Amino acid sequence: MTDATTTEGTRERTTEPVLGVTVGDRVPKLRQIVLIAFVSAAFALVWFVALGILNIAFWENDFVTANRWMVPVLVLVFSFLVGLCGKYLRAPNAIHGGMQQELKGGGHPDYSTFPGALLTSFFSLLSGASVGPEGPLTTLVVQITMWLGTKLKLAEKTMFGFVFAGLASAFNGLIGNPLFSAVLATELEKGDNEGALQFLAWNLVAGAIGYIFFALIGFPAFASSIPFTPIATLAPGFAIYAILLGIVGVLIALFIGISFQIFGKVMDRIFKDRFIERVMAGGIVIAIVAYFIPELMFSGEAQVGSIVANPAAYGVLVLFGFAILKVLLFALSFKSGYLGGPIFPVIFASTMIALALSLLFPSVPVALLFTCIVAATVTVVLDAPLASILLAVTIATTSTIELGYIALATATALILGGAIKKRMTQRAARQGGAAEPSSADDARSTESQRAQEEHGR
Q1: What is the pLDDT of residue 200?
Q2: pLDDT tens sequence across 93-114
Q3: Percent of the chain, pLDDT > 90?
C-alpha cells in the first residue's frame, strides 16, 4: 500500500490507507454518524422502492402472468445483463471470497464501479436467482460510506466503525429491528477490540435512526412476517429438542458450505474467466427450475409466506425437496456471478426443513422448530450468533421462554460449528494446504462480505 501525507498545522504526518483509500486522522463526530445514518437510510429506501417498481413492471404484469414461457425468458435476459455488467462495467460479485476478507485485507477501491454495482444489483435480484437483497445493499452502502468517510478524512481506526454504522441504518429497511442491524454490524466488524464499545454505540445510534426512519415511512419490513404461535411452556423436553435442532442447523450450514465448494470448483474449471458464459450457464439452470417450480424463484422472502400458511398441501417430501433445491440454487447463483446476500435463501431452506419436521412430529411446536433451526443455521453461516438470535425473534412472534430455547440451539450450533471448523483447519494444515472455506466462511462472504469486493479491486 502506498503512503499518503496529511498536513496537521505546520507538521506533516504520514498515514496509511485503509481499504485502499487515503485516510486522515479524524474521529467521526456524533453529527457525522447521524449524517451517514440518514444518507444510508435514504439511499436504501430509494433503492428498495426502485427494485419494487421494477419487480412489478417485469414480473407482475398481465402478459407475464398469462404466458408462463416468459418466466425463463426473463430469467435469461436478466442473467445476460448481469454478465454484461460484470464483464464491461466491472460490477462486483461473490464468486471468489467475500466482504469480510476484503474489508480486512485492503485494496484500492474504484468508485467508477458503482454504476455497474447498482445495475447488477437490480439485474441479479430481478433474474430469479436465489440471492437476497442484503448483499447488493451492503455493497452499495459500503461504497457510499467509504467515499463519504474519505471526504471527511476519517482516521483508519475509525473508518470501519463509520462504514458499519451506515450499514446498521440501511439494514433496518430490510429486517425492521433496531438492535438486529446494530448487533449484526458489530459482529461482522469484530476483530480488533480497540474502540469496540465506541463502534457499538455508533451502530446503535445509526440503527435506531434507520429503524425510526423506515417505521415512520411505513416501509414493509420482514419483522413478524412469519407469525407462529409463541411457546408459553417451559419443559425439559423442549430444551432437548432445541439442542437437537441446533445440530440440524449445523447440518444445513454444512450442506450449504459443501454446495458452495462444489459449484465453485465446477464453475471455475469449466468457465475460468469467461464471465458471461458462466452467468448464462447458471441462468439456464435457474430458468428451468423457475418454469417448473416457481416457489424457488428469487431469495424466498416473498414465497415463504404462502407455504407456511399450508405446509400440508405440499407434504414432507416436497418440503425437504424445496430445502435441498433452494440450497443448491443458492450456491449456484453465488458461484455463477449474481450479486446477492445469504440471509433470505438460508431462512427459506431452514423454514422448509422446519415445516417438514412439523409434519413428521406434530407434537413439537412449529415455532420451536422454525426459530431454533433458523437461528442455528444463520449462526454458522454468518458467524454472528447474537444477530442470528435477534433475527429469529424478529421475523417470528416469540415469547421470553422461547428465547431461552433459541439461545440453547444457537449455542449448540456455535460450539459444534466451531469444533468442525477447527478440525477442518487442522486437517488442511496436516495436508500442507489451507482449509477449504466452510459455510461460515463461504456463504458468510455474503451479507457483509459482498459489499467490500469492489474495495479489493
Answers
A1: 87
A2: 888 864 344 333 334 456 778 9
A3: 59
Question: Residue 341 has what DSSP assignment?
Answer: B
> Does the pLDDT at position 145 exceed 70?
yes
Domain count, the chain: 2
Q: Are residues 53 and 18 in the same domain?
A: yes
Nearest CA to 120 among 444, 345, 454, 456? 454
- Cα–Cα distances in Å, from 329 out to 127, 215, 222, 326? 12, 33, 22, 5
DSSP state of 443: T
Distance CA 228, CA 399 (A): 11
Do residues 175 and 27 both lie within one domain?
yes
What domain range is 71 assigned to?
A: 6-222+450-456
pLDDT reading at 16 higher than 50:
no
Alpha-carbon torsion (309, 59, 317, 315), positive or negative: positive
Q: Compute the distance between CA of residue 161 and CA of residue 152 in angstroms, rounded to an integer.
A: 14
Q: Is 62 a member of any domain?
A: yes
Pair (341, 438) in one structural domain: yes
Domain membership of residue 371 (yes or no) is: yes
Q: Which helix (H) or strand (E) holds 430?
A: helix 400-430
CA dist 456 and 438 (Å) reads 22
Do 153 and 257 lie in one domain? The reply is no
